[in-house]
Amino acid sequence: MVFNSLHHPPPQSPPIFDATPESLRNDARALAEHTQKVWNEVVNTVEPHSATFANAIEPIIRDENTKSTSMRLLRFYASTSPSKALRDASNAVVTLFTDSEVELFARADMYALVDAVMAQDLPSNGEACDYLEKLHRRFWQNGCGIADTAVKSHFESCQKRLKDLERECNKNLHEEKTGLWLTREDLKGLPASFMSRLKEGEGERKGHFWVATKVPQSNPVMKHAILEATRKKMFYTIQNRMPENAPLFRELVLLRDETARMLGYPNHAALKTSSKMVKNPETVTSLLFEIKDRLVPRGAEYARELLELKRNETAARGAASDQIFLWDQSYYAQMQAEKEKAHGAELSEYFELHTTLAKLLQMFEHMFATCFEIITPEQQRDLSDNRPLIWHEDVLMFAVFDSETECFIGYAYFDFYPREGKYTHVGHYSLQANFLQPDGTRFRASSVLVMNYNKTANRPTLLSLEDVRKLFHEIGHLIHALCTETNYAASQYVDRDFIEAPSLMFEQFFWQARHIKDVSFHYSHISPHYKEIWEASLPEEQRQSAHAMQPEAQLQDDVVAAMAKSSSGWKIVREQLKDVFFSMFDMTIHTPKSHEELEAMNLAEVFNRLKTEIYSLPGGEAIGDGWEWGHGETVFRNVINNYDAGYYGYVLGRLFALEIFKTGFEKDTLSMENGRRYRNMVLRVGGSQPEMKTLTDYLGHSPSTRPYFEYLGIATGDDEHGLV
What we know:
There is one protein chain. By secondary structure, the protein is an alpha+beta fold. Among the domains are: 125 residues, Glutathione S-transferase Yfyf (Class Pi), Chain A, domain 2 (Up-down Bundle); 58 residues, no CATH class. Helix content is 54%, strand content 7%. The strands form 4 sheets. Strands 1-7-8-9-13-10 form a 6-stranded mixed sheet, with helices on both faces. Strands 2-4-3 form a 3-stranded antiparallel sheet, with helices on one face. Helix 4 runs antiparallel to helix 7 and helix 5 runs antiparallel to helix 6. The two termini are 46 Å apart. About 1% of the residues have low confidence. Belongs to the peptidase M3 family. Keywords: Hydrolase, Metal-binding, Metalloprotease, Protease, Zinc. Its cofactor is Zn(2+).
C-alpha cells in the first residue's frame, strides 16, 4: 500500500522548521509587541461612546489571524524538538505568550471598549456575534469586572502564578525519565521482541533491564508480566513517578478555586462550564452520577470475572490467590482478550503502521472528499529552497486537497516514534488555523499528529488494536482541524465539551466489521523484504513450509465479525469506567462547597478512594499502605492543562459521538452523501457558532442518553432524557 503522490505544488507555502533558540525568543517578543501596539492604537483612537465592531474588535481579529500563522509553531518545539535547547527556548516562549495574554485581558481600557460594543453594536453575523460574546467573557474571567483594585491586583498575581504552575508541571512531565531495573525473571511473560528493545545493565546492573514508565514500555509489562510482584512494582512506580508535582498540583487546584471565587463564581467548575455547551457544573455532576450509578454494577461484575481468571491462572501455577488488585487489571483483561489471535498470527501483524495509515486515509478520502498526498524529502527541498519543512527525519508530511474541487485544504504531519524530550503520549496539535484573509482568499490550516509507537531497527512497526483505535481517534481531530473553514482563526476551536465528539465518532468506524477488514493487511504481503522478515520470525522447523503457512492478506470475515462483536461488552465498560473516574475526580476537586473544604482535602486519598470505588478493585490500602499509596493526581496531565473541570468532555463527547454516528452513519458508513453532509454541517463550522446549535442542527433533535446506555449494554427505558 502506497500513499498518494503529490501531483502539483500547493498554492500556500508550508511552515519552516529552521528556528534557533534565539530566533524563537525574538519572534515571540515581536508578536507580543505587535499585539500590544495594535491594542494601544485602538484604545488611543476609540472612545467607548464611539466604539463599534469595526473600529474596536476587527483590529483584534486581524492581529489574531496574523499571529495564528506562527504563534503555535513557536510553542510546538517544546513538545517535539529533538534539541533540548530549542525545547527550553520554546518553553520560555510559552511563558512569554501566557504572561502577555494575562496582561492583555486584564486591560480595563480595552475591556471598556468591548463592553460598549456588547451593549451598543451586536453584529448580525453569527460568527462575529459568537466571537464578541467569547471575547467579552474572556475579559470578565480575567478580572476586568473586579472593582476593588487591591483584589484585582491579587487576582492578576494569582493568574500569573497559575500559568507558572501549569508550565512547571508540564515541564516535569515532558522531561520525566523514571523507570525500573528488572531481571529477566521479573519480566517473564514478555515477548522476546520487547526484551530486545530494552537497555541492558552493566556492572552491578548486569542481568537487569531498564523499563521506563513511559507507555510504550510500561504498558506491555502491565499486560504481560506473569509475576504479580512485577506488576505491582511497575504500577506503584507509574503512580508515584512525579513526586515534584504533588505540591505544585495542590497549589494549582487551590489557586483555581480562589480566583474563581474572586470573580463571583462558587467554584472553579462553575467558572469553566459557564462558557461551554453544558452551562453549569450541576448538570455535569448529575449526568456523571447517573452514569456512575448504572455503570459501577457492570464494573463490579467485570471485576468478579477478572478475579475468577486470576484464581484459575494462579492455581495452575501453584501460586493460588484469592484477591485481585488494580495492578492486576491490565494483565487479566489481556488474558481475557487472548481471542485476539487469527490464523496463528497476532492481530497486530495485520496492522503495519504505514499501510494502516494509508488505508485509513483512503477511507476518509472516500467519505469526506479529501485527498492526502505525501510530500517526499526531495519534494520538500524543492518547495522550500532546502529549508527544513519537518522537525525530525521520521516525520511524514502531506498536502491535503479537496478531491472534488482540487482546492488546497492544508498540511498534515505525522510524528510517530518516541524520542528523548518528546511529548510522551498521543495528541493532536493545530499548528496554523484556517481563516479568511483581507483579500478574500483563505489561509489554510496545518495540523499534526504526535504519537509514540515503538520503532524497531529491522522489523516493521505493528499496531495493536488499541493503537489502531487511537489512530482513528487522533486522525478525527486532524480531519476536524483541516476541514474547518471560519472567518476568524479563533473560531476554529470548539468548546472543550464538544472537542472530543468528532474523534470519538470516528472510532466507531473501526469497530464495523467491513472497516476492520478494509484496513487490515498482513505485513508479509506488503513487500518481499517484509515477507523475509516474517519468515525469519517463524520457528526453525516451520520455515521450510513458510509459503504454505503464509497468512491471508486480509483478516477473514469470521475474524472481523468476532472483533466487531468484541468492541462491545467488557472492553467498553473498562474504557467508560476510566473516563467516569477521571471526570468525577476532576469535578470533585473543582466543586468544593467552600475554599476551606478544599484546603482540608487530601487529593491523593480522594483520587485513590474514588478509583477503587468506581473500578471495584482495591489498591495499596488493601495491603496496609493506606490511602496515599499512590499519587496518580500528579500525572493527570489533562487536568493540569486545558481539561480542568472539563475531562467530562470525554464522557459527553462519547454520548454526542454515538448520537452522531447513529443519525448519520449507522445505516451506511461509507455513504459519500452522509460524509459530505457531516463535513459541511459539523466539521466546516468549527467554533463559529454555539456547538449545541451545530449538534442539534445536524441531529435534528436534542441529544439524549439513550444511545450511550445502549452502547454500554445497559437497559434503557422510556425515562431516557435529553441533555438540553
